[in-house]
Amino acid sequence: MSLVLTERPEVTPGAPAAPVLRGPLDFPDSPLSRSARQPLMLGLFLNLQDIRISSVPTSNSWTYDYNVELVKKADALGFDLAFSRTQWLPKGGYDGEASLDSFVALGAMAAVTQNILLVSTLHVLYGPWHPLHIAKIGATFDHIAKGRWGINIVTGHRAIEHEMFGWNRIEHDQRYEMTAELFEVLHRLWTDTENYSHVGRLNPWRVHNGYITPKPAYGRPILVTATGSPAGIDFAATHSDLLFVTSPGGAHIDSALETLPAHIATIKARARALGREVKTIINPVVVSRSTEEASWAHARAIAENKPGADHVQFFQNNNYDSDALAWQGRKDARNKQGLGLGGNIEVIGTPEQVVEQFAALKAAGIDGVQLSFYDFREDFDHFTREILPLLKEAGLRL
């Protein structure tokens, strides 16, 4: 998949040639470039919906107030980014009845934060979104956030979500081809200084004399893609700044560390072949106490106390049909299984052991960790008191 710069159906007469595309990492003073200079970027992977993986008590809440306080705290501590999933599921599809939209919620946080990058998840093919809507709303959030806002690009892997919008699920690789065309147009709308027109080749929309102002501060908003398939990696290598990876080896940390280096090397080589750089981030769930025994005891308690019959539709049992290749392909290299704590990998242990595991992830090629906690309020407090200073001592944070 290559980025089309010259094909311009229905081009406005007299319009200039397509510009060289530049993203935030091409600007040394951009907020993303600032964060990328950290040895290991730190972020929060928020829960803007009810997620109940266990009946062990937790303070977690889907509410905006709960989550914005976490993000404000992370901002004050120097964390680099925050984002959350968005899902479109029918009644009974969520663990509870509430789920905020990440596109709106993370954009809203721009007005009450100073430095942290805010990434809004958006299913870009549902609706369908028109590129003018995405370009204008994105430029507005970028203006409010002064270059700190971005999009986590989701093409949609569950048939039930496509069907909610009146579509049959689009074939996996075709979704990325459609999304590539969309972002080719968005790049033009975010950068062209004259009107721009385009007739969709794969998408059911057209743009006639489209124009967006203000322009984003650093070429375009930050772009993130969560993927592991060849088609997804090609798309991310062409368009994205951050690639949200899945451990090919499963949730167990040893298996992840065995399988991640080759996977990340493939991703970065693909980007370099296109003359670009992408950063890789991953989502560990962190369970830590003062001793190894207490850490594992708490992790096992979470795993062994699944919700009862009144919550049979809890998050990890929402087995809606999915064609997400990255998750289907996970194989545990050492036949070790994770405990099912949520997150992409499980980091369990004392503060010192957590830092050791983070250092190993960095050595495997990971550029940043997007943290989840079983209890965000309590466990994030523990992380900031006990683990963050050790990360600085270990040279993983400046």
UniProtKB/TrEMBL annotation:
Presence of the UniProt keyword Oxidoreductase in the record: yes
Record-level Gene Ontology MF annotations: monooxygenase activity; oxidoreductase activity, acting on paired donors, with incorporation or reduction of molecular oxygen
UniProt cross-references to SUPFAM superfamilies, sorted A to Z: Bacterial luciferase-like
Domain Luciferase-like: 58-367
Domain of life: Bacteria
InterPro entries associated with the record: Luciferase-like_dom, Luciferase-like_sf, SsuD_RutA_monooxygenase
Keywords: Flavoprotein, FMN, Monooxygenase, Oxidoreductase
Keyword Glycoprotein listed: no
Protein name in UniProt: Flavin utilizing monoxygenase
Native species: Azorhizobium caulinodans (strain ATCC 43989 / DSM 5975 / JCM 20966 / LMG 6465 / NBRC 14845 / NCIMB 13405 / ORS 571)
